[in-house]
Amino acid sequence: MALLPILRFPDARLRKTARPVAEIDAATRQLAADMGETMYEASGIGLAATQVDVQRRLVVIDISEERNHLRIFVNPQLRSAEGAQTGEEGCLTVPGIYDKVERAERVTVDYLDLDGKPQSLVAEGLLAVCLQHEIDHLDGKVFVDHLSQLKQSRIKAKLAKQARVTA
Ligand code: NI
Q: Is the pTM of this model over 0.85?
């Protein structure tokens, strides 16, 4: 297993649209394992392949308290979304920034598991938010895109300052 470098907003590579995983092979399983390890190491609850500069539709999520329930979604697709909820979101590619985003309350997601078997999941609350956030990444979107232009400019300025301090 290996830790993968996580891209930082506003890196242009975060804007790429990921391609579907054509075949679930050893490399796919290795990527999923590495993404899981990277997410746990960074104390995140979700990670999309786009964030580690791999343009494939693969997402890992663990919203459990115990950090022992890794969920892996290959080619996840939002089949339906209903209701609304607003919660504070953060993102491993936008470190230290948290803000309120409105999302659907309940979603149905179709995906493949690591055996290539089609699965379907109905999710609510935090898991629903996480799925929407991660699928956004696969489409080249970051949660700050949902915020006002003013907030986005402030976030870019703050992150640029952080980068200068830590460089
Ligand atoms: Ni994110």
A: yes
CA 105 to centroid of ligand 1, rounded, Å: 18
Q: Locate the DSSP E strands across the chain.
A: 46-48, 58-61, 71-82, 85-89, 99-103, 106-112, 118-124
Which amino acids are annotated catalytic? Answer: 134
Residues, the chain, total?
167
For the chain, the domains span 12-159
Distance between CA atoms of residues 126 and 105, nearest Å: 9
Q: From the CB of residue 46, how many other CB atoms can be counted at a distance below 10 Å?
A: 24
3-state secondary structure 41-57: HCCCCEEEHHHHCCCEC
Ligand 1 centroid–CA 126 distance in Å is 13
Assigned superfamily of 12-159 = Peptide deformylase (3.90.45.10)
Ligand 1: distance of its center to the CA of 46 in Å? 7
Q: What is the enclosing helix (H) or strand (E) of 130?
A: helix 125-138
Quote the CA–CA distance of 135 and 35 in Å, as a whole number: 15
- List the beta bridge partners of residue 103: 85
Using a pLDDT cut of 90, give the percent of the chain over it: 95
What mean pLDDT is reported for the chain?
Answer: 96
